[in-house]
Amino acid sequence: MTISAPFLVRLSCVIALVLAGCQTAWAQSMQPEQVKGEGVLVYRERDSQSDEFAPAIKFKGFEKFSSVFHFDVGTGNPMILPTYLVAAIIRFDELQGDELISEADQAKLEAYVRKLKDMVKRHPRAASVSKPVIAGLDDDLKKMKSGWVRHIKQWVTRDAYEAERESQRRQEVAEREARERMQAAAQRSEYENQQRIRATDERENQITANWKSCRPVTFGGVHLKAEFGDFFDLSVANINRAKPVSRMQLPASITQGAMDLPGIYDGPGGFQTAGCGFREGTSSGAPAVLFVHDDKGCMMFRIAVALKTEGDTTVNTGDLQAAARMLSSTLPEIADWLPLAMVSARTKLQFQRNAEGKAGKAWVPKFGGWTKVGGHYCSLKANAPVVQADGSFYSMVVVSVF
Q1: Helix (H) or strand (E) holding 97
Q2: Residue 241 has what pLDDT?
Q3: CA 80 – CA 75 distance, rounded (Å)
Q4: What is the phi-psi region of residue 56: left when phi exceeds 0, alpha when psi lies from -120 to 50, beta otherwise?
Q5: Residue 2 reports pLDDT greater than 70
Q6: Per residue, what are the HEC states of 144-159?
Q7: Which of 212, 202, 234 is nearest to 304 (CA)?
Q8: Residue 172 burial (10 A CB sphere; 0-12, 13-18, 19+)
Q9: Higher pLDDT residue, 291 or 207?
Q10: Which tens digit of pLDDT belongs to each residue from 76-103?
Q11: Which strands form 68-72's sheet, in the order they lie side by side?
């Protein structure tokens, strides 16, 4: 009979797989199960030896192979026994632990003690090595029945244990609540921050849109729309008429935190600025600043402050003083001119009230005019106090410097 080559190939593959399986099974059988911990070994000296005559010995651990045991009995060399000569193995570490607390722990301990005592009855020669262990476990049972528990290897009364558990529970609750409060605070802070960012973006979009269309906007929470529209009226004609001979360097107290606005452009070949900046007041009366600049520096800036009045008295004098400090930091000479300009504007408003029965706006030196101060040109515009929605009276004062 002739055997084909393909059949021989398939047969060789099957044989290889069988041999590989045998090698794997043999290798696995050579990997012992290792057990550490003390216990009692009861073994037969011969296969026919009865349980009552089987000797016992303590071990420190053992390795279990497929057909033999290697016991560490403290002699340096393992005690090797075939599986069929091993009568019983009792491990002491089955109940060795830190905790003996619950009824389930007590029931497990009682069952383990019964197991040891039954083993001693079957194998009397194991009593000498087992009785000390049994005595210790009986003592543990007596303690548990007397209201003691073993916690972290220490015996304490159940009341003390429960008090410690309650204290630990309260601490865990307090820590969890603290974490939850921190998380809630962080989430609230993040939400409020996002709301502020959204409100700021919306406000800047509103200001930019009004700037482009020359519409008046709300100033610092006080609705002085018409007056604030004048504040934003930076016409090219006004700047050209002033013809500033030198640029100003604005301090950080004015420019810090300002938002950018589009520049002013007067057509091909005409007047052009690199951009404008605007910083709103931090409160309803705090100074607001608008400035125009090109690549050489600041060409013009304007400060507005809303003065809250009660009769002839200004309530928020601190806001007026803050505006004066801003102006003086850029143009020191204005410190002498500003008080005189304020008095002049109030005198003009009073004259209007006396002559016409009502006051509107007053310019210093005059509408469209400028006063030269320290090499630059200044003007002041003030409007008569007007009542707001909250019942308060505010007067807008605008100072422009070229």
Answers
A1: none
A2: 44
A3: 12
A4: beta
A5: no
A6: HHCCEEEECCEEEEHH
A7: 234
A8: exposed
A9: 291
A10: 899 999 999 999 998 877 665 668 888 9
A11: 79-82, 68-72, 56-64, 33-43, 86-91
DSSP conformation class of 30: T
CA 224 – CA 302 distance, rounded (Å): 16
CA separation for the pair 187, 19 (Å, rounded): 65
SS3 label, residue 63: strand
Looking at the DSSP assignment, which residues form a beta bridge with residue 378?
Answer: 371, 401
Model pLDDT for residues 372-384, shown as the tens digit of each residue: 888 888 889 888 8
Query: How far apart, in whole angstroms, are the C-alpha atoms of residue 124 and residue 120?
Result: 5
Domain ranges of the chain: 31-152, 159-213, 214-401
Q: In sequence order, what are the residues at sequence separation of 6 or more whose Cβ sits closer than 8 angstroms to the Cβ of residue 326? A: 253, 254, 287, 289, 303
pLDDT at 344: 93
φ and ψ at residue 376, rounded to 5 degrees: -125, 175
The helix (run of H) or strand (run of E) holding residue 347 is: helix 334-356
* pLDDT at res. 171: 95
Classify the C-alpha dihedral 242-243-248-250 as positive or negative.
positive
> Alpha-carbon distance 262 to 211, whole Å?
8
Q: Which residues contact 56 (CB under 8 A, 6 or more apart)?
A: 40, 41, 42, 43, 123, 125, 126, 128, 129, 130
Residue 157 tokens, joined: 């009364």
Q: Which residues contact 342 (CB under 8 A, 6 or more apart)?
A: 380, 382, 397
